[in-house]
Specification:
The complex is a heterodimer. Chain A contains eight helices and 17 strands. By secondary structure, chain A is α/β, with parallel strands linked by helices. Chain A has two domains: 3-170, Rossmann fold (3-Layer(aba) Sandwich); 199-313, TPP-binding domain (Rossmann fold), CATH 3.40.50.1220. In chain A, the strands form four sheets. In chain A, strands 7-10-6-1-4-5-11 form a seven-stranded parallel β-sheet, with helices on both faces. In chain A, α2 (70-84) packs across α3 (95-108) and α4 runs parallel beside α8 (301-313). The relative contact order of chain A is 0.11. The mean pLDDT of chain A is 94. Chain B is of the alpha/beta class. In chain B, 28% of the residues lie in helices and 33% in strands. Chain B has six helices and 15 strands. Chain B has a nine-stranded mixed β-sheet with strand order 11-10-9-12-8-1-6-7-13, sandwiched between helices. Chain B has a two-stranded antiparallel sheet with strand order 2-5. The chains are: A alpha/beta, B alpha/beta. β12 (181-187) of chain A pairs antiparallel with β11 of chain B.
Chain lengths: 315, 248
């Protein structure tokens, strides 16, 4: 038995969620009294992983993996799982990791539990806690299989430093053919993406029109945050669809979510509920969002937001 | 071209979430069930493909008799045929295995599943199916074009969109963007009447054993009251965020 963590990287840097997955994997391995290995595709920054407790770093350096392919990555993972005799595979909850998690489970004929928020309550039987009903409930879920694949929800476990001088090994992967190829990737110009952001600044219809988003962007820049919006705002074309957060849009699981001029419809709340701290700025004291928020300001966004930016900049 | 759209029967978003039997089962009492929104985006796309290219659209659900109302609605929206695999749906693994067994008998060029259901949010069924069947797989799919045997797909990725192409057969995880909310088809009287004449086949389940079991559900702790800050006391808000919540 051993724990294997898939460590997602981009532009030769590990994602924060990869360190979180490794922190989880290390804690799980300790609880089970086994070793934890990290699997890395084409990223030379292995040293940064030692801080989070890996016993071994397995690297696959191959141009075949330069482009993301769920099929190729999943098949490579399945080979490493077999060679390492892994009992548990830990992934983050990023779009690509969830993509791999589901695909890998099919290839390995096992199951995958995503949105896991804590270490298992017990190892035998193996019971983990995950969110369900779009964050309106939790489930203590028993996993009955020899190989368990676990997706850790972003910002739920956190980073735990645990220095360990990991050994580094190269793995020679047996390639699989795929007729799938990427034609192009269109990246948005915004600096911080919603999925990777610790802070998300989101605005709704209360902003009255797309011309008023400058202050939202300034507030986001000040906090190093990503910008997001409510469904009506993206439906009316004030902001791109990619910014829409909520049940049918992107899920948000940030440390801080600031909602400006968003009333807090149940579909919106469902998508952002797993954010840790919620701040609401709205001129309507009856807005349902105040019931779901930790901190609130009842006031005119056009006065509160510029004042808040000024105070944050003056810190 | 044969398209299969897998449909999950889910509680309406506004449903009260409660549990029974010592918190081990969802309380469906008084709950209105709907087509899982991510599946409905996929179904609408399939109906469009049928209108433009003449595809056959089959909808399938794994569930008991109560799931048939949803299948009739799918037929009224424009699917040609419905299939219900007769069993209590337990976990994603067993559901995907049941669908796989059907796909081994009847082959499809494109299988569409919602990227995730809004009840258990696992996001697992499309990936499992693709893995079991060894089909190409694209999830978070926001565009799909098929020309002969070649599919061009757009996938939402962190901070952008990825365009790729592959051969069919293909499994996609559908979501908003594949069609827009305003594109969803509301069945008209003619559609509803026609749906009654369309075939709804019931298939015996293989009764695959589940790999995960929800042992106990918990509801989030009751939230403490929001702390309100006056608009002219924003320093207090910053202090809360910095020193109490420690998030900035």
């Amino acid at each position: 038995m051993a724990v294997l963590v898939y460590l997602e990287s981009e532009d030769n840097k590990f994602k924060k969620t990869a360190y979180e997955a490794l922190s989880y994997g290390k804690a799980l391995a300790d609880k089970m009294n086994v070793k934890v290995s990290g699997l890395v595709f084409n990223c030379t920054d292995s040293d940064s992983l030692k801080k989070y407790g890996a016993d071994k770093i397995i690297t696959i350096n191959d141009t075949d993996f330069e482009e993301f392919s769920s099929k190729k990555y999943s098949h490579a993972l399945s080979q490493v799982i077999k060679s390492e005799n892994s009992s548990d595979v830990i992934l983050s909850s990023s779009a690509n990791s969830k993509f791999i998690g589901a695909h890998l489970s099919g290839i390995m004929d096992t199951s995958f539990v995503s949105n896991v928020i804590d270490l298992p309550e017990s190892i035998n039987p193996f019971v983990v806690k995950r969110t369900c009903f779009t964050n309106k409930a939790f489930s203590s879920t028993e996993m009955i299989s020899d190989l368990r694949i676990i997706g850790v929800s972003s910002n739920s476990f956190g980073l735990i430093e645990n220095m360990n001088d990991a050994s580094v090994e190269t793995f020679n992967v047996e390639k699989v053919e795929s007729n799938q190829r990427i034609l192009k990737i269109e990246k948005e110009t915004g600096s911080v993406t919603i999925a990777d952001a610790d802070v998300v600044v989101s605005a709704g219809r209360g902003l009255k029109g797309p011309e008023n988003w400058e202050m939202i962007e300034t507030l986001a820049d000040t906090l190093g945050a990503a910008t997001a919006c409510s469904k009506p705002v993206s439906d009316m074309g004030w902001r791109p669809h990619s910014e829409h957060v909520g049940q049918t849009g992107k899920p948000v699981s940030s440390n801080l979510y600031i909602a400006i001029g968003i009333s807090g419809a149940i579909q919106h709340l469902a998508g952002i509920n797993s954010s840790k701290v919620k701040v609401v700025i709205n001129n309507d004291p009856e807005a349902p969002f105040f019931k779901a928020a930790d901190y609130g300001v009842v006031g005119d966004a056009f006065e509160v937001v510029p004042a808040l930016i000024e105070k944050l900049k003056a810190r | 071209m044969n398209i299969l759209v897998c449909i999950s029967n889910v509680p309406d978003t506004t449903s009260k979430i409660n549990f029974v039997e010592n918190d081990s089962k969802f309380d469906s009492n008084g709950v209105q069930y709907i087509i899982n929104p991510n599946d409905e985006f996929g179904l609408t796309k399939a109906v469009w493909m049928k209108e433009s290219n003449g595809a056959n659209v089959t909808v399938l659900t794994v569930g008991n008799l109560s799931a048939e109302a949803i299948l009739r609605k799918c037929l009224a929206i424009g699917a040609d045929k419905a299939i219900r695999i007769d069993c209590e749906a337990s976990d994603a693994y067993s559901v995907a295995k049941e669908i796989e067994a059907h796909c081994q008998v009847t082959s499809y060029d494109v299988i569409i599943c919602g990227r995730e259901s809004i009840d258990y949010n696992g996001g697992l069924v499309p990936g499992l199916l693709a893995g079991f069947l060894d089909y190409n797989f694209i999830t978070n799919c926001v565009n799909l074009e098929i020309n002969n045997t070649k599919a061009t797909c757009a996938r939402e990725i962190s901070g952008g969109t990825e365009i790729s192409e592959c051969e069919i057969p293909l499994v996609i995880g559908s979501q908003k963007g594949l069609v827009e909310e305003s594109d969803l088809i509301i069945p008209n009287m003619r559609g509803i009447m026609m749906a009654r004449q369309k075939p709804l086949e019931v298939i015996q389940a293989k009764n695959i054993k589940a790999k995960i079991i929800d042992k106990k559900f918990h509801k989030p702790e009751v939230k403490s009251e929001v702390k309100l800050v006056k608009p002219d006391e924003l320093d207090k808000l910053i202090d809360y965020l910095e020193n109490e919540a420690k998030v900035i």
